[in-house]
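Ticket 4471: requesting a sanity check on a complex prediction with S-adenosylmethionine. Repro inputs:
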Amino acid sequence: MKEDIHTENGSSEAEQFWEGYYRDRERVWSGRANPVLVDVAASLPPGTALDLGCGEGGDAVWLAGLGWQVTAVEVSSTALSRAGAHATSAGLEGRIDFQQRDLARSFPQGVFDLVNAQYLLSPVEFPRDRVLQTASRAVAPGGLLLVVDHASVAPWSSHRHPNTRFPTPEQALEALNLVPEQWDTERLGAPERQAIGPNGESAIVTDTVIAVRLRTR
Ligand SMILES: C[S@@+](CC[C@H](N)C(=O)[O-])C[C@H]1O[C@@H](n2cnc3c(N)ncnc32)[C@H](O)[C@@H]1O
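Returned structure tokens:
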């Protein structure tokens, strides 16, 4: 990992929650890239990528391995240091700029050929629509914004609640508040995938997938 990790002053509720979440667990995610990212990005020419809420770095390291120059943002320093260790063990630390930020408070500078937001969610106060709208403005002309979220939860999930209503893909797209004439929608749907639980159990779950490309003019 780069030595000069960007950090902010003063911890937020989001940082306290997510830092505790990661610190209480040895490793949370598989270390592999999310399947929709692999499906969408494997055939893209490498460029610059921004990964929002990168967790332990599975997506960022996968993109870097394909030649992308990645900026990976995460609120938890524990998650970031695991992501950094993953990048180092893959020999890819020079290709990833890890930044510790609360995205509700600040957002990286610049524009990117790919902006990736996979399950960017939080049980504590999080202005998700505003952050994703800011993310859309960080897409370079001709670049892609990829947003993937849960559209159902597995039976073992602690987030399972009978009254949970997930937005439809159309509602999620509308919340991005994009100017329609400026974007081409490449994917909009709720595909199924197989999820594996902590005890090896499996279930079919759905995700909301949005992939929109910013027109060059
Ligand atoms: C469900 S996890 C998904 C992690 C990763 N994108 C993946 O798919 O494996 C959500 C991630 O968003 C991060 N996150 C939540 N709120 C955040 C915020 N306000 N600023 C930055 N990251 C945040 C969490 O720390 C967590 O790592």
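Notes from triage: The two ends are 37 Å apart (CA to CA). Leaving this open until the requester confirms.
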